[in-house]
TrEMBL record, chain A:
Family the entry assigns: Belongs to the acyl-CoA dehydrogenase family.
Organism: Streptomyces palmae
Lineage: Bacteria, Bacillati, Actinomycetota, Actinomycetes, Kitasatosporales
Keyword Flavoprotein assigned: yes
Gene3D superfamilies named in the record: Acyl-CoA dehydrogenase/oxidase, N-terminal domain (1.10.540.10), Butyryl-CoA Dehydrogenase, subunit A, domain 2 (2.40.110.10), Butyryl-CoA Dehydrogenase, subunit A, domain 3 (1.20.140.10)
Protein name per its UniProtKB record: Acyl-CoA dehydrogenase
UniProt entry tagged with the keyword Cell membrane: no
GO cellular component annotations of the record: plasma membrane
Amino acid sequence: MDLAYSAEEEEFRARLRGWLRTALPGLPAPPDPHDWPARRAYDCGWQRMLYEAGYAGLHWPAEAGGQGATPTQHLIFLEETERAGAPYVGAGFVGLLHAGPTIAAEGTPEQRARWLPPILRGEQVWCQGFSEPDAGSDLAALRTRAVRDGEDYLVTGSKIWTSHAQIADWCELLVRTGTGHETPGGPDTSRHRGLSWLALPMDAPGVTVRPLRTLAGTTEFAEVFLDGVRIPASQRIGAENDGWRVTLVTLSFERGTAFAGEVVACRRVLREVARAARDNGRWDDPVLRRRLGRLAADLGALWRLIQWNVSEAQHTGGLPGTGGSVFKLCYSRARQELFEAAAEALGLAALDRNHRWTADRLSSLAYTIAAGTSQIQRNIVAERILGLPRGR
Amino acid sequence: MDFRLTEEQRALRTTLRELLARHYPPHRLREAAAAARTPDANGAAGGEAGEPPTAPTSPATPGALSPATPGTPATPGTPATPGTPVTSVAPATLGAPVSLGTSVPLGASVAPGAPGAEVVDAECWRALGRAGFFAVLLPEASGGLGLGLPEAVLLFEEAGRALLPGPLVGTALAAGLVPGAAEGEAMVGALDARHPLLEYPGVCRAALVLDGATTRLLDTGELARCATPLDSLDPLTPLASLPGPLPARHPPGRPPGASRLRQEATLLTAALQLGSAARSVETAVAHARGRTQFGRPIGAFQAVQHLCAGMLERLEPARCAVYAAAVTGTAEESAAAKLLADEAAIHNARDCLQVHGGTGFTWESEVHLHLKRAWVRAAQWTTAQEAEELLAAELLTPETDWPRNS
């Protein structure tokens, strides 16, 4: 049980801090959150700065153009960039955390050379085409179909909850290529067997993007309609009908550190909430005080849980354990509770939609839904960690 | 950073788990509960119905029973004598022998019928003593194991998992301070003057009282005068209250020490709660896999699965909080660890009871013992209110580095 960082890790931290001190003042002003092209330019500009400083693809393997950093170094990076107020990965999220690592692990040398460098340099933005209107938690039920036509696939169907679709160059697209339910081996097996992972260029003919307005009033999601879109078979990652396994590789790259920076940010917000309550007199309410004290305990424990998971990952070759599900369940609830407590501390000011914590209060509602609902996560915990019988 | 158990720590944990499996197998817990007095007149072996759980000892053989056995002369309704002087313990005297009565063998020192005598397993206690359980934090030079808080919390987590009865925390705190404590030859209680509650009063040869910054010691006779038995909710944790005011006199030049002991007690109690919370998950999962209704194990129903998953959601952050507090040793992390471990122990026992259905509501089931002990421990040392207020106050102080990286 060692929480102290090694001399090598501290050196990494010191070098990063030094770079952040000189680099961050050079950043342009943050863009209007509703101006998507400006947000893309800002996020890509930050990625370019990371690339030039040698921090791009920190946790990617070196042979894929990354830095081959350890999980602990990645954790230090997330902690220090958050502390310094550096930009979040933003529009680069899917490319750097999902599509890129998948191509690095499963792509051919040609595919890696084609797609990975532009992601690392901040030149190309990816989005994710997994969920469908009728395939959310039950992702394997997806129906977007790709039919082979010579050297191409013709793809028809629709995707939903596609973040950054309106500003993306590429989409990691999961489609049905197999014969599906007719395949012998039982319906469940065949559903998973008949899927393929394709790289879809978002400017291809037949692609229509329709932004979705979220309850927070923002439009970071979109529906993507595909009408006979032609995709060369050379843009398939992995074998035909093997897309489910390829997708699990993608999802496994989250590694439990995805929210590390956010936990640090939540701690800062919690302190700001406490000061706001002191200034408006609500600090005298012991119920509110204790609620905030409890949140301090929760956030502290979540940080220690991240360190526990990262230490595990460090010894299992960087692959995440199922511990990520427990963390995600706890963190999503703590984040929602933080902004509910903030609203109580603010009083009537919490009803002002322009208050800086209102947007966070609203967007926090997605945390128990996105990337596996809390209910799906509890199924995973029950069956894969606790070993309870399958519930179907 | 390598926040995992080392090989040595795993081995230490395994050693204690095996020792407890030998000396305190699960059926002993149920036997102790069956033997404990219940409010039911037709209850199992134990005291007579309606009799208060006092130990009106009138030792016939002083050598065996007195003064090592305090008994509890205060009868219900009769306030204990307040203002009894206590022995102050300065660090300079930590290693020095303190006069605490005779060195009567542990088992014989317990009066029949004394609160705690029927639930504390003297033989197991001595085995723990021989293994160094109570001396885990005592320096090697003083005859202890000389290990750190991380090792101590791992040992206490195992004791919590087994729900081992006895004044575990007090005795460990008293190692090196009260003769026989480190070796498992004397049981010693401990309490925070803010929560004047003593567990296992009938078997404690002495009690540490942490009062503000001062560490005092109530010897056997003073303990007997101060303690008023409480008809404990938990059949395996006899309790006595020490109605105030506790002796306020103390010599000048008070040494520090109480705050460190209080923090250790908080953390070790949190570790006991953690072990209990983990045991509740295991018990619930085992039951959910084995119990069949509607033609399938109840653990295949999502409603039950999600109850069990929720137990792990409490357990894992609490575990990391307890282990981290053992490493950093800060007051804030220790308080947070206790807060989360208390909640994990209480609510995991509650959910475990729910998973067990009607069986969980019986005296024979182990489940209620975890719940009741968790309630007792939550009231000891740093309570939820104190922890939350401490952590809230800390939010308004100038921020040091967060997260603390050492």
